[in-house]
Amino acid sequence: MTMDTPPVRRRPRPTTAAAVAAALALLVAGCGSQEPSPTGSSSGSQGSSPGSSPGSSASGDAAAGAGTATVGDCDAGSAAVRGARTLARVDLSGDGTPVPVRVTGSSGRCPDRVFVPVGDGFAVAPATPGEPPVDAAQAVVVPGVDGALLATRQSHPRGGLQLRLYAEEDGRLVELVRDGGGATDQPLLPFVALDAPTGGVSARCADGAIVVTEAVAHEPAGVVMAYDVRRTTYAVRDGEAVAGPTEKTADNVLPAQLGRRFPDLLGPDVLEGCRG
């Protein structure tokens, strides 16, 4: 059974993800190393701390979209940028040269901003005000696509995590999103709840695409909790994700059967099939 799904578009600013149930371990452990600033200087570390991320000004977001020599409201010589932590190294351009993925601290004028060097400036991920800071990152390699994608993780204090995928396009970090069915789009990978014994999600990378499998509450709801398992293939093209039809692969699966029939949904790593 298939359900037609509208194309997934990229957006300049992400929104809060819709919660889906899952019992999964964390994506990757964050690193605390430092990198020299783009000017060649180095400084002390300003690690991020748990909690909500304050928003940034409109001027900071405009600078991020243009890929200029600012990170939010902070310039290259600021203490926040020079002291940003390195989370990973990812070859976003596909030229064989991984670049450091860094995040600013949770205080100051440009809190919790993820950025990478591009030319003489930066490509900066859109701000996610009101959400926890990014605490880990990794490369996602899609076969047949030039350059890796960047996956970031936000760990929520009450349990759960949000994974986001970005492509570097024209000096910007652009998030891959799915149509939210309303006024807002959603992250391509749904929110993963770690504090509820419910369904799950997994992703694997195929030729030129990311295949997302989800266990969602069965509809219509019955007396006993059950799940439907659905799978959608998103083609990755020029920094965007385009959804194909959604296929229902299983119907009315009981919780005790879910792990046996679909072990990847309850595995330790949502992006296990997309390691760089």
TrEMBL record:
Region (Disordered): 31-68
Biased composition (Low complexity): 37-68
Alphabetized UniProt keyword annotations: Signal
Keyword presence, Signal: yes
Signal sequence interval, chain numbering: 1-33
Name listed for the protein in its UniProt record: Lipoprotein
Organism phylogeny: Bacteria, Bacillati, Actinomycetota, Actinomycetes, Propionibacteriales
